Structure formats: structure tokens, C-alpha cells
Amino acid sequence: MTSxxxxxxxxxxxxxxxLAGDIRGLLMLPAALTLQVAHPAVGAGxxxxxxxxxxxxxxxxxxxxxxxxxxxxxxxxxxxGRRLRxxxxxxxxxxxxxxxxxxxxxxxxxxVHATGFPVYQHAARYLVRxxxxxxxxxxxxxxxxxxxxxxxxxRDMPQTIEEFWPYYxxxxxxxxxxxxxxxxxxxxxSPVPPPDRGPWAVRxxxxxxxxxxxxxxxxxRGFITVGLMPRDAREAIGLxxxxxxxxxxxxxxxxxxxxxxxxxxxxxxxPRARTARAAWRAERGGRSLRPRRGGSVRSG
Length: 300
Description:
Layout: H1 15-20, H2 25-37, H3 40-49, H4 56-72, H5 75-88, E1 92-94, E2 100-102, H6 106-114, H7 116-127, H8 133-149, H9 161-174, H10 180-186, H11 200-227, H12 231-237, H13 243-259, H14 265-268, H15 271-283
Antiparallel strand pairs: 1-2
């Protein structure tokens, strides 16, 4: 439940509700984040104001926690939206094209949010299953609901999926480029500090072997980022992708599609999603979480 007049999160059992809490969503996020910062203003804001270089693990954890609140947070979703807007009020500067920017300028703020839809729609084909036309429409409606939680006005976002694709293609043609942050996110040699979360003994062990772990992890991060980005987006940015890489990605995703659906719920879903699923199951009198027609996405 949410307070009267507050924007509400997407409905339980919907497409986004099913995708966002599944651990496969973790593989989708790097492509969405990279597409966000391919916008010159967004890239400049992250380059100049973010701690993604000095505290990448903390920033990633906070971003994931925020996303989970938008979808599963109930009344906390609107509060999280207000917190994010307050956080971004002072972020401004000049982008790579010499234009003044502000993080909350409608065009910039809307693009940051808009990128999630094409990435979810594209990556689901590989990691879950292709969305039906009804599911794509439902996903877009639900993504608009999340936008309202973030304080994005309806006038600043295309209100139908038919309006979205021309907007998206125009952004790719007119705005998107390989910004400094994009190049760092897909590079295999960017310096990344070891994780600083968890028990101290584990942190010490990871730090000791980090020089060995980092290169393959960086290669995998770059591979999954570019591979799960929509083809037209990576072409607009100028990211290389070969037929051999595509075959590798398809084999990897086939394994993921087989393994994840048979995992126990505590391993398949992120904590907040598990809690939300349990609460919804209790409300429904213990009935299984069957997807509604045109609603949630089921795999396996």
C-alpha cells in the first residue's frame, strides 16, 4: 500500500516484478548503465560527480538497492524517489559537446530511466525467453510507473511503446557516443579496487588474489555489457561485437536459462524480491505465484 497521491510501484506478478528480482537481472544491469552514460550529459555527470572509480562496489550495491525499492518497496519506493532527486539536485556542469547540463533536466533524467526498457526487452531474449507483444506492452507500462516514482513527468516520457521506439532511435542517432565513462566500463584493463564488503578475513583473501581475479572478471564484465546491449545501441556507440562473441554469448545464456529456473528460491531471487514474493503468496492464501496472462515472465 502507498499513501494517497503517491506514485505506486508496478503490480505484483507483472513483467518487471518478475524480471527485476531474478538474479539474471544482475547480468542485464551493466548494459543499461553503460547505455545511460553514453549520453554526453549523463556521462559527464558520472565522470565528474560519481564515486564509481573509487568505490565501484559500494556504488553498485546502492544502485541495486535503489532499483529493488522502486519495484518492491511499497511506500518506501516514493521515498527513495525523493531521495534520488535530492541527491542529484547539485549535479551540473558542461558536457563533452560544450553544453551546460543538469542531472535533473527532463531530457537527461528521462534518458537515464528510459534505457532500462530496451535493455530488459533485449536481454530477456537471451537470459529468460523472448517477451510476447502483450508482455512488452506491460513492461513498458510498468516502466512508466517506475518513472513516476522517480519524479519523471508523463510529458517527458513517451507514453506508449509505439511512441517510445522513434524517441529511442532519435536518441541513438543524435546523442549517443562513446563517452569516457563508456570506454572505462567496457575496458578490460581499467583499475578496479577489490571488494571491501564482507568479513575481514574474506576481504584480505580477496585482496591477496585480486591481481589474478581482476583480468578475467574485467573481460567478463566487458563481454556481458556489450553482448546484452541492444544491437542498435552498441552500433550507435561504436562498440565492436563479432559473430564468434555472439555464439559464445548464446551458449552462455543457454546454460543460464537451464540452471537458474531450477535453483531454490533463496538463490534465484534477490532478498527484497524474495520477501515481496513471500508476502504476496501469503496474501493469496499460500497459492503459487502463477503468472497472469500477458503478465509475468516465466522460464523453464
